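batch_manifest entry 22 of 60
target: 3'-5' exonuclease domain-containing protein
source organism: Ganoderma sinense ZZ0214-1
requested by: lab member K.T.
priority: normal
notes from requester: please return tokens only, no post-processing; we will run our own comparison against the previous entry in this batch. if the run fails, retry once and flag.
--- input ---
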Amino acid sequence: MSRRNPQNTKPLFILCATYVAAARAAEELSRHDTVILDCEGRELGIPGGALSLIAIGDSTASHIFLFDVLALSDRRHPLLSPLFALLRRTDIVKVVWDGRADFCEIAETYGVLMEGVLDLQLAEVAQRARSPHSRKGGVRARHTVGYFKKLKDEPLASFDGIHRLFGLEQCARFFQLLRGDGGKDLVSPRLTPSFPRILAFTPVEMAATVMAMHADQQSAMWMQRPLPSPLLHYAAHDIELIALVLDRFAPGQRGDYLTALPDLLAMSARYMQASPTRELRALHVRLDLCRFVPLDVLKAPSAGATRLKEASRRQSLVRLSLCRLCDLLARRNAEVIVRDWLEV
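--- output ---
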């Protein structure tokens, strides 16, 4: 099944709802050294969550495949091997935006631990952390400090090394990759030949339709079959949006976001493991920790560093780093500060 651009014969995306189609798509995607991945489903990454679609495209979103997880539910089926191999290959970079829930759900659903992940959300933070302008009060730095504005007496130095995360659309608008009309219209001077394509729904109409469906059904809307066309287009459109951000972050563009790729891949691997289970991620959501880069992600702990778990978070981190983030969040939210530590 595919949806086509009304002005040409090129598919906007291909829906893979059979094992044969999934194998063919995975084999085609495996010819690339970089792919873009995004997942959709019900309450992804927390208890009760369920994966519905895995969307994967090439680095310019010229070819997008939507893998129907409900139709491809037999994890032992031999024709899923090409997809699983693609997800595990370290020589093929999987570009994501906040792939923590995606990583968790793919592991829970298929028993596959995705490797070779490059998380652009983390790349933005890493560049922000090493940019003097960002550290000294730029718009992106204020994104963190503004969250703690209730703590009027907290010295600014206390926020060093603590970084609030941007959402995908928020970041795309900051870099002027989206138009300012409330929809998801794409803007890309470099990628105009392949971007934006003429969709069956305009981005604004699509966003409004999906928002209305979400208000009615919440994220359970992703579990219905057949999936309504607006949801399929929405999933494909997110791949296009990540591709635009990837293009903006590419080497040679202002900011040098992806210059230290091996370091970013190592950071992303630590990021994926920050909340590897639905239960732990739900705890982090409740504590507001998912709004921030987990500490010990941007910089790996020194070899042999003593590591403990803080009782409320149940995450293994260097004690000093953990105290600072959890204490700030507890003070902001007027919560009791838990100082119990558990041996790892």
